[in-house]
Amino acid sequence: REFFELCRKRLNPNGVFCTWVESYTLNLECFRSVTATFNEVFPDMNLWSPMSSDHFLVGFKDKQLMDLELLQERFADAGLQDDLKRIDIMNVADFLGNCVADSAGVRRIAGDTQVHTDDNGLLEFHGPASMIINRDQLKIRELIEEGRAKDLSFLISGISTGPSIVEGAKYIQARGHAERGYAFINIDDID
Predict the structure, then answer these.
(1) Taking CA 79 as the corner, what is the angle to CA 77 and CA 7, rounded to the nearest 5 degrees?
(2) Is the pTM of this model over 0.85?
(3) CA dihedral 139, 141, 146, 149 (to 10 degrees)
(4) Which secondary structure element, helix H or strand E, spans residue 139, and what is its range?
(5) For a Cys-Cys bond, which of 11, 32, 79, 94 suits 61, CB 3.0-4.6 Å?
(6) Residue 127 reports pLDDT greater than 60
């Protein structure tokens, strides 16, 4: 928690902080603890999952909403398009489809989990064991999919329709169905 607090303290007004958290070596308890800790320090935040086991926690110093027109304008940049194609993001709807949850969704995902602090060493003592044998990767994916957002109102204010928004909402739902299907097919591998 202390590291996240230092980061938040150093942000400018309207500042944004992003951190990566993976679920291929973290067990469920550690994953939930990291998300709960981040959410405690950044009450305004989103969880993004562009890859099945790679996640981004994006925290805001102040309430932030995306400027859809600016987002579409930036997506017109050929260099950005080339970079994003490497991770299968072809358009604005693809990008928005990677958003999993807002703060409330993250609180549901985290559940009643211990917040990680410098004094309790949860990650330092539990994390290494899950690097050897991690049986929770698919459980984490399923937990994330259960908390997946169904709309983008927490991201973009005042615009509930429009091609990118409607298409983005469909991508969110489709990604969720695909991830759940993968977890369902492979669930026997983790029990």
Answers:
(1) 90
(2) no
(3) 160
(4) helix 137-146
(5) 11
(6) no
